[in-house]
Amino acid sequence: MSQWIQLFALEFAVVAIAALVLLWDAFAPRTGRAVGWITALLLGGVLAASFFVDGSGAAPHGVFVRDAWVVFHERLFLAAGILGVLGSIDWLAMRTPKRQAEYYALLLFSLAGMMLLAGARDWILLVVCFELMSMPLYVLCAYGKQDGPASEPKLAAEAGLKLFVTGAASSGLTLFGLALVVGMTGTSHIGPIVTGGPVGSGPAPLTIVGMLFVLAGFGFKVGAVPFHMWVPDTYQGAPTPFVAFLSVAPKAAGLATLAIVLLGGWSASSSVWLPALLVIAGASMVVGNFFALPQTDARRLLGYSGIAQIGYALLAIATQSRGGLAMTLFFVATYVFTNLGVFFVLHAAAEEGGGHTLARIAGLSKRSPWLGGALLVFLLSLAGIPFVAGFWAKLFVFMEAWNAGLVTLVVLGVALAVVGLYYYLTVARSTYMADGDRSTPVRTGFALGAAIVVCLFFVVGLGLWPKPLVEAANHAAAGIVSGR
Amino acid sequence: MTLLFVLALVVTAIAAVMVVAAKNLVRAVMALALMLLGTAVLYALLEAPFLAGVQVLTYVGGVVTLMIFGVMVTRRHEGANAPAERIHGFRGLVVAAGMFALLAWAVVASDLERGATPIVKPETTRSLATALLDDHLVAFEVVSLLLLAALIGAVVLARRRDGRDEGSAILAAASREAIDAQQAPAGSAHGGDAR
Amino acid sequence: MNLTHCLLLASFLFCVGVYGLLTRRQAVAVLLALELMMNAANLAFVAFAHFRGGPGQLFVVFALAITVAEVAIGLALVMLLYRRHDDTALDRASETQG
Amino acid sequence: MSHLLAWIVAAPAIAAAVLLVLPASARLPIRVVSLIGAVVACAGSVLVALTYDRVAGGMQMPDDWALVPSLGIHLKLAVDGWGVALLLLTGVIIVTGVLASWGVEKRGKEFFLLLLVLVSGVFGVFVSQDLFVFFLFYEIAVLPMYLLIGIWGASHDVPKRGPFGFAWKRFAVGGKEYAAMKLTLMLLVGSAAILVAMFLLWKEAGGTSFDLAHLEQTKFSLATQNWAFPLLWLGFGTLAGVFPFHTWSPDGHASAPTAVSMLHAGVLMKLGAFGVMRVGMVLCPDAAANWAWLVGGVAVINVLYGALCAASQTDLKYIIAYSSVSHMGIVMLGAATLTTTGWNGAVYQMFAHGIMTGLFFALVGLVYERAHTRAIAKMGGFGHVMPAVACFFTLACLSSLGLPGTAGFVAEFLVFLGAAEGAHSWWAVPAVIGAVVTAVYVLRACKTIFWGPPPTGEFAHLTDARSTEWAAPIVLGAALILFGFWPRFLLDFIDVASHTFLARIAPFS
User: Fold this and answer.
1) For residue D405, is it left (φ>0), alpha (ψ between -120 and 50) or beta?
2) For residues B27 and A49, what is the distance between their CA atoms, to the nearest angstrom?
3) pLDDT score for B160
4) ipTM of this model?
5) Peptide bond into D244 cis (omega under 30)
6) Is the peptide bond before A198 cis (omega within 30 degrees of 0)?
7) For chain D, how big is the Rg over CA atoms in Å?
8) Domains of chain C listed by start with CATH number
9) Which candidate from B19, B78, B107 shows the least CB-CB separation from C4?
10) pLDDT beneath 50, residues of chain D
11) Domain residues for D154?
12) What share of chain A has pLDDT > 70, as a percent?
């Protein structure tokens, strides 16, 4: 039993916080910001504890393995969770003061799912964790159903349903694919595909189809082309503080899963999935970047930009090298902080300006220079401009991909990065050069401001000094891919 | 035996088509029930009696009931300004047919019958339970969390702003099903807290 | 009665579900289509478990729990949408601009 | 003094950081801090010029910090002869630029902040000896331009006509935001090309180091060179205004505020030419020789086309901007000759043109601030009301057309000489024709605006330069004459570096 506690200490803690928050709210309902702050602080405690608890080990039968890979992801998810909570505190206290606890509890459940996901080495556990991660997200998406600026349609419920339908459909796709793969290989362990046939013969057609189905299922989850349709709609409809979380943590978890499955389990069968992965990565970069161009709603724009970013991350996974995987982690980690920051600033501006369209956030930098500057930094990081974290992320990914011989995709990616710069700059243009109809400073709540500052710190800090994260990522990736 | 199998197979297939073809949603749900029953029969024939039982209990007994409930509650309105029933009909057909062609080709091309050895020791309910609570205990616990999360989520969604619990009927049903399906004491314990 | 037949049936059910998913506009109908897909996966699991062994049945136990949870959430969302719009057509959600 | 180069690069950045914490209302402190940052950097540059050992040559005053050791990225600074000349140029331009923009009122804090960051990047490019860090600084120098032009730029008051005239109204083509976006995107496309070429070279050199010295010792295969060189030429060349990728430059320079135009035309375009020579030609010597015909041919087009375009403009800033395109053609022409004389001329032209165009834009800004128009047809006889401005403007014009005794003469003469010596001696002919056309349009513009009957009406009461506005004309004008009569001072630096680098292209020198 003690071994279990040691192995799952952090996950236990997260679930316990969820229970605590629910109970506290049930017996002592509060309408202030206390619930959120307590959640954030306790999560911070868990994050701090993750540096002291040595939980490495494996559950019986190898269904769950805790190594550097898992530790890296747990910390990343916890950080995203803390920031997600911080970013929501002011909004929740204002909009639904009587119903805050469930929001945090659901977010924590999702967080627990993600944290477990990183260590799952068994299909059953993986699928179940994936659902534990996804299910609360459907609900949270529709949380602020009557919410949002007056000028915009209230789309939260639709966004939730849309996310649910795509999520459930992708679960179905994954499950069916798994039925074929697990059935053909006869084991639920995530490992090499045993062909069963004579030596040298590849997997049976049915196994191949199953693998592709599984890949497609995960493609839905991370929002890669051609499974991306839900992304812009959901981002536009769901409450913005939640979209910030939705746009980073589940995607990071999805990419982690893809890495576990493709590089950890199916690495020997890369001839099956690699072409598909490359096509998906290339298509995501192209579609994401070009469809973002005509957008006028900042959330939709960021949705498409997120699709493009996923394309870059998949490109790094496609290198199949330890270095490439490490750079995926670096990319994802910087993306987490950058995208959270972008959405938080956008949320602050939209609350005050009455909408998320580029016209509504016009003049932001004149009204609040710091907020405008933060937004600019985040946008530049997304665009991959030097001395912010996103630059190193893109650069490392491209370098690893170039090393792995994916020259065409690298050239495509570099060219598309310029397209990306264009639409990121259109956002910057509307905040810096256009004149809005208001001139009072944008006020952010303390929690939201703190979240933005933390994001800013990491984006700039990692931009100036990327070495620690590079090393951590390299260390973590060694748990999945050995060798170079 | 074979006859029963063929019968179940045909009934399941036809019922499935009816589920997506029926204009009337109540009929579609009924067809779903039929299909689920057909599948349950197939489970039984495939030596999975426990699953057949669970299928009948949770699916036919629970999910279908829930669906009917959903149809009834949301039904008032179809008719007058009901939108066109289908979209992208042709595109959907092409995708589905293409997918089926791919799958059917893969199934046939994989030559599954050659070298397949009959199972010596069929999986019994007992071995299933052992696997559930031994090898996959972690997953089992996670599922209880999942059901708890779903429960809280359903409460959150169904509860009205003004506090009236219109959706509590759905919830009650949902939670019962959830708990039945897992027979997880953890689930009900947590469920109690959530209320 | 062999594995090929069972898998063909499962594939058929799955594809019918996909068709329904892609073409139906009523949210409840979409849920029904999702049920078809999940059920198809379960059938394939059980068939494999019977003819080839392996953890298929165990998988189904978990899949059932997942399905039930999904139905609960899905129906709650449908009802929410219905209360909001008095309409459960799905594509109002996509006031897409591209 | 240790770490002198690092201090030069850091001084403007530190000043920018100080600005960050100053309140936006502190008008004077903001300007003083900016000026201090600029002066420190400029003084450092002068110190470098004085302490650099001209006889020994090569890389001097090295500094080295590991930035990302796993990829072999080092913050490695050192300066060569070319670098000395260009550091001096940058130092002079930024000091005068800060003084020239003393009167910027709109969001002054952010303006000076961005300006200083940009200059930091420029200094960094000229002294970095690591290709990657070179690229980083290059990006820093390019990017602030977007905001500088987009926020503080001026939209055009000269309406566009002709078949595409509708576009000016419909899409705000020609507006400052259009110019800013066009400039940024074109330069960033160039950066993408540079990045790809960098990877090519890095990979072939073993994938362990971006150190320029290391890369110079690597013998790249001809295939790699033939890919990398055109990419570098187009990438850096976009910033140098190489035809047909020069189109951002007239729009950008015409829209930019005074100091930004000075910096951009005066210094930033040199970054491009410097990149082509320092990185492209030095690292890919064989390909440089192979492609010289194209580089030189396009440069000739630049010279002629730029001059003809300038001759047909009616907007004063556009005239200067197109003349920059023409003069940068002379730089590229000198580079393409692959001779010591030609390269000396090219670098000298970078310096001379930087000073001259800085002077031009400073004066144009001064005139524009008073007259509120840049249409030369409306102006006339300004010499009567602003004699000093008129004199300095005429001086710049004379340098522009290459009058002996000005810095422009030395540069152009060297380039033409180099062209005549080189493999394609006919290049000298159209280049000289271009110089003649330049004489026609600069003199015409100068005569129209400053000389003639005294102005009447709204222009009758314009005033001459005042207080800080004197700085740019005096310093830059003096430099033009000084380096026209005493070219040896700079040429000693330049020559020693040109010899070293050209040794790599031995068969052609």
Assistant:
1) left
2) 55
3) 60
4) 0.81
5) yes
6) no
7) 21
8) 3-87 (1.10.287.3510)
9) B107
10) 158, 508-509
11) 4-508
12) 95
